[in-house]
Amino acid sequence: MSALSLMQKPTYYRMASHINASMMVIPLLSEVNISQFMLHVLPNCEEVFGTCSWHGKNVNCCEIFSLQKTEEGYCYSFNSLTSEEGKHCPLSEVLENEGIVEEDDVKHEGCQLRRNTAVGTVTGLEVYLNEYNMSETEGIEQRDLNGAKVM
């Protein structure tokens, strides 16, 4: 598991020493679905997000963030048409229309991009993360010491 925690694009080479040290264990993992494993150990949305606001109004973080598969595993994304929930969205059509899909277009439900048309401190997305349980970290061996990475 420490090998997986160090895996980071473009530095996958860091895994070599861990894999070499684990050669006896690797055959035991042949039946493990890595994607399912990553989903199983991913903190759920309620564990990650404290409070969120959009356009100055409090919103349920778990209603505006979606599960997203990336090169580094799974994460929660905001306003992404390539998230797990947005896989059905017609990217070319949505992007050609500047993110606008008619609200009554049931064929493309959930494909509307959120937009901000103002400036200021409370006009966009504001997110507060829950405090990370330090007893569940890998300590200084952990890639993101504070437990979160914003990309």
Q: Can you describe this structure?
A:
One of its GO terms (molecular function) is sodium channel activity. It is found in: Membrane. Keywords: Ion channel, Ion transport, Membrane, Sodium, Sodium channel, Sodium transport, Transmembrane, Transmembrane helix, Transport. It is a multi-pass membrane protein. The protein has 151 residues and is of the alpha+beta class. The chain has three domains: 1-32, no CATH class; 43-73 and 114-151, no CATH class; 80-113, no CATH class. It contains six helices and five strands. It has helices at 2-6, 15-21, 34-41, 45-48, 61-64, 91-96, and strands at residues 49-54, 57-59, 65-70, 73-78, 125-129. β1 (49-54) and β2 form a beta hairpin.
- Helix/strand order: HHHHEEHEEHE
Outline type = globular
Amount of helix = 10-25%
Alpha-beta classification: alpha+beta
Largest sheet: number of strands, sense, barrel closure: 3 strands, antiparallel
Adjacency order of strands in the biggest sheet: 2-1-5
Oligomer: single chain
Task: Give average pLDDT, whole number.
Answer: 77
Q: How many strands in all?
A: 5
Distance between the termini: 23 Å
Number of domains in the coordinates? 3
CA gyration radius, whole angstroms: 19 Å
Helix count, per DSSP? Answer: 6
User: What percentage of the residues does DSSP assign to strands (E)?
Assistant: 15-25%
